[in-house]
Design goal:
With about 290 residues, the protein is an all-alpha fold. Helix content is about 75%, strand content about 0%.
C-alpha cells in the first residue's frame, strides 16, 4: 500500500514536470494541425474579414481529381527516392572509407561538411552560376574545350536536365548529414572485432555485413526516415534552382500563395502527411521484419 502511494506520487511529480513541455507541444503542433484540418474543409476567401464557407470534403475531391497534383506527386516520389538513397549511400561510403587515422583527416572532414554548413541560398546561386549559359564553367568545358555541343545548353530550362541537376545538388548538399551520423557510430565500434574477423579470413564485404551494418542499422533507419521527410517536402532548393521541376513543395506553395486557394492547399498538406506517415511506417515495418527473419 505504501509502495503504491509512493508510485502514484512519483507519477504525479513526473507529469507535473512534463506538463509545460506537453502544453507547449500541443500549442505548437496540435493546434495548427487541427486548424489546418478545419481549413481543408472550408472555402477560404482572400479577404480575412469575410467568413469562410464549409464545403466538407470537396477540397480533397478536387485535389484527387487534379492531374497536376498526381504529376507533382510522382515527380516528388522519384526525386525523394533518388536523393535519399544516393545521399545516404554516399555518406555511408565516405564514413566507412574515412574511418581510420590519416594525415589531414580534420581538413578532409571540414571540406566534406562545407556543403552542409554553408547557407543554402549561397550554395544554390554558386551551383546556378556554374551552369550559366554565358559565364558558367560547365558550359565553357562542354562547348569550348570538349566541343561536345555546338550551342550552349540551357540546363535549367529543360525538365530532364533540370531534374538531374537539382537532384545532384540535393545529394551533394545533404550527404554530409548521413556522413556525420555514420562516423559517430563507427568510431564507437570496437576495432578488435575487425581485427578478429580479418584473422578469421573475412573479406571487406563480410566484415561490413557482420560488424558494421548491425552497428549502423538503428542510425541508418533514423537517417533514412528523417531524410525522407525533409526531401519529400523540399522547396527552397528546387524553387530557386529551376521552375521546371514541379515537386509537391512547389505545387503546394503555388496553390496557397499564387492562386490563394488555402482550403485546397490545406487538403494537400493533410494528404501528404498521411502519405509520408504511411511511407515511414512501411520502411520501419520492412526493416524490423528483416530483423525477425
Amino acid at each position: 500500500m505504501k509502495h503504491s502511494k509512493q508510485l502514484r506520487s512519483d507519477n504525479r511529480f513526473a507529469y507535473s514536470l512534463l506538463a509545460p513541455s506537453l502544453i507547449l507541444l500541443l500549442g505548437l503542433v496540435g493546434y495548427p494541425m487541427i486548424y489546418n484540418i478545419l481549413i481543408s474543409m472550408q472555402k477560404v476567401p482572400i479577404n480575412p474579414k469575410l467568413p469562410s464557407e464549409y464545403i466538407g470534403l470537396e477540397n480533397y475531391q478536387k485535389v484527387l481529381q487534379d492531374p497536376t497534383f498526381w504529376q507533382s506527386l510522382g515527380t516528388t516520389l522519384l526525386f525523394t527516392a533518388i536523393v535519399v538513397i544516393l545521399s545516404t549511400a554516399a555518406g555511408l561510403a565516405m564514413a566507412c572509407f574515412l574511418n581510420r587515422k590519416f594525415f589531414g583527416k580534420k581538413i578532409v572532414n571540414a571540406i566534406i561538411l562545407l556543403s552542409y554548413v554553408v547557407p543554402s541560398v549561397c550554395m544554390i546561386f554558386v551551383w546556378r552560376y556554374q551552369f550559366n549559359n554565358i559565364y558558367g564553367i560547365i558550359n565553357y568545358i562542354v562547348v569550348n574545350l570538349l566541343h561536345l555541343s555546338s550551342s550552349v545548353p540551357l540546363w535549367f530550362d529543360n525538365p530532364v536536365s533540370a531534374f538531374i541537376l537539382v537532384a545532384l545538388f540535393s545529394i551533394w548538399r545533404f550527404y554530409p548529414y548521413a556522413y556525420l551520423a555514420f562516423v559517430a557510430i563507427l568510431q564507437s565500434v570496437d576495432q578488435s572485432l575487425y581485427e578478429a574477423a580479418e584473422i578469421d579470413g573475412a573479406g571487406g564485404w563480410a566484415r561490413f555485413r557482420a560488424i558494421t551494418y548491425p552497428a549502423l542499422k538503428p542510425t541508418l533507419i533514423t537517417v533514412v526516415s528523417l531524410r525522407t521527410i525533409w526531401v519529400f517536402y523540399i522547396y527552397t532548393e528546387v524553387f530557386l534552382l529551376s521552375s521546371q521541376v514541379n515537386v509537391i513543395g512547389v505545387y503546394l506553395y503555388k496553390m496557397a500563395f499564387a492562386t490563394h486557394n488555402f482550403g485546397k492547399a490545406a487538403a494537400i498538406s493533410i494528404l501528404l502527411f498521411l502519405l509520408i506517415l504511411a511511407l515511414l511506417l512501411l520502411i520501419r515495418k520492412k526493416v524490423f521484419k528483416e530483423d525477425e527473419a
